[in-house]
């Protein structure tokens, strides 16, 4: 059909409108094929222990779509959560990370993975985690689960039980994006966890004597009292790192230490970045 042909334009218009109405439906369809088509890649970002200088990594998923290009992780994770595809994705990441830990066990002591609430609520999560670990000969203590909650948590009691079981099996558990939800402090009160990760929103505006400084310092004091470790995410400047170190934050993560990257690149980048911050720790 030629341009200007009424029908073609109409069809184009309808398709276009459909995509604008529910772009996430289109995303989900593509996402389902992404795993089989090898379009998903696990990136790693370093997290530095302030006390020991030891490094571990967080696994962050990337989707290089042949049709859409690099799709922002936040947006496809949201679509995956809405549609339920997230389970398959999280289990895939879990397998990849275990495989990775096995391949690099001399240099890696643990890796953090993000699991959505839906995945945590899946009845066979623990079985699948444990069988992944035994398949690759990995100790559960080498896996830390970051609880990422984008959808509303409905039933706390089952989640509490689930987390307790996971920790009894040796897995570590952290609350991600701490401070960004109304229920953050209640989670800290009721959920059995090893760690909280202060959301980057607080860290990005962190300056001496700022509101963020006072909030973070208070969270750290509180976490110390209840025996929970604290990671600060989104650390980009030396000043932010200095404030966090002075406030006894346990771990730091952010572009200052390295951006998420394929594992082959992550170590050289980390060594280069070290010049900027090494005198701090
Ligand atoms: P998150 O777990 O809170 O991860 C931190 C996000 O902040 C990552 O975004 C990371 O790339 C970014 N970041 C780290 N340091 C800095 C910094 O210094 N400055 C700035 N501006 N950003 C920084 P990313 O990789 O786009 O991931 C977004 C979110 O997607 C994650 O947030 C997590 O909630 C979710 N996610 C990622 N991978 C997975 C996965 O495998 N499964 C599930 N369920 N969720 C995942
Ligand atoms: Mg995370
Ligand atoms: Mg986070
Ligand atoms: Mg986040």
From TrEMBL:
**Domain (EAL): residue spans on this chain:** 24-274
Tell me where on the tree of life, at the top rank, the source sits: Bacteria
MF term (GO), any: cyclic-guanylate-specific phosphodiesterase activity
- Protein name as catalogued: Diguanylate cyclase
Q: Which residues of the full protein are shown?
A: 275 to 555 of 555
